[in-house]
Amino acid sequence: MRNSKKSAAALIAAAGMAVAAGAAFAQQKPEDAIKYRQSALFILGQSFGPLAAMAQGKIPYDKDAAARDAGIAEFVSKLPWSRFGPGTDQGNTKAKPEIWLNLEDFRAKADKMQAEVAKLAQVARTGDFNALKMQVGETGKACKACHDEYRNK
Ligand code: HEC
User: What's the pLDDT at 7?
Assistant: First the structure.
């Protein structure tokens, strides 16, 4: 009796927390959404950077470091896109207003990049440096395609 009471209370508490978390997400302040996506993109850049430097011979190739950074890049590449919601087109952001006029194209470019980064992570794990170099190139193109059109300098 005591136990079932306790677990019912725990269930209700858990449900309450889930609702609170959902509400918090729905009401995320535009400036927090902007900070969230910029933070994810910053980490993406910091994880991709060493791979690009290895590909260009600027730092020595390190298979384990490459695999680790590519894995992080793959994960964070998924994060920014839910944070381009209404009201996040102004403030402390380099996002161009064109994003919200061409959301389908913007999403397609985000998907393309995520696919390239996923491939990058796969290739990095194999230790094939030539394949890694090629895939760094393809990934860089996917970053640039979006920045050229949708990011202010
Ligand atoms: C679909 C579009 C798109 C793709 C693809 C994309 N970016 Fe960006 N990126 C943006 C936008 C938009 C911003 C500006 C965000 C803001 O200021 O709110 C940005 C900002 C950044 C920033 C600056 C973050 C900061 O500190 O504020 C870095 C670094 C970055 N991107 C790296 C990358 C890398 C590396 C890739 C490829 C692996 C990539 N991005 C792919 C759209 C994209």
Answer: 59
